[in-house]
Amino acid sequence: MVTRKIVHIDEEKCNGCGLCIPACHEGAIQLVNGKAKLVDDKYCDGLGDCIGECPQGAIKIIEREAREYDKEAVQERLNNLESSNMKVKGGCPGASMRDLSQSDNNNSSITSNDIELKIKSQLKNWPVQLMLVPDKAPYFNNADLLVTADCVPFAYPNFHLDLLKNRTAVIGCPKLDNTGYYVEKLTSIIKENDINSVTVAVMEVPCCNGLIQAVQKAVQDSGKKLDFEQVIITIDGNKRQR
């Protein structure tokens, strides 16, 4: 045992999003009972590459007595993770592979191959990617804003008619993009335009929590009181609200 710098994860702050796991190149972190945990001191080099990926500020570097960092043990662990595919399984649950081709889907009652259903697009604005939309635009004025995770339209078959219709939409991915930028951009959009309400639609996977938190923070930082709604889409294509 030596006194050295090592990662510390605050369990109370951790929401189990899993964003820290792929950021740890040593495979030292995994989800245990919905919380990020340091698997073993010897796997952590204390550099803290995972810190910047945590939207909750739950990770920091501390000094304490710990087992020495063991490069050989790390390589052995990485080899085991690779061979067992645990790198994906132990990371964000939203990255886990699932074959939905055999899933029952209750959203559609049309089963005949002879029927072709065509739905008119309900998209009111372009671009839709949050990184690309301007802070101020005519389509934001007097708008009901829909902030949606970019997987939602693929998973939810009634997306256009149920969520997108009569709303101005922006999309993003809290796992791949900087949620701090999302907060700044959405705050500016809400401040600079006459927004009536905000709906955030996400997938049921933990990493989507980052988008909910970003939208909530943006509404708060804007200083405006807006109607706010959260919609959760399950991976098999159903909708629930919370």
TrEMBL record:
- InterPro entries, from UniProt? 4Fe4S_Fe-S-bd (IPR017896), Corrinoid_activation_enz (IPR052911)
- Ranges of residues in domain 4Fe-4S ferredoxin-type: 5-34, 35-64
Q: Which Gene3D superfamilies match?
A: 3.30.70.20
Check the record and name the SUPFAM superfamilies matching this protein. Answer: 4Fe-4S ferredoxins
> What Pfam families would the database entry show?
Fer4_6
Question: What name does the UniProt record give this protein?
Answer: 4Fe-4S ferredoxin iron-sulfur binding domain protein
Q: Where does this protein come from, organism-wise?
A: Halothermothrix orenii (strain H 168 / OCM 544 / DSM 9562)
UniProt lineage: Bacteria, Bacillati, Bacillota, Clostridia, Halanaerobiales
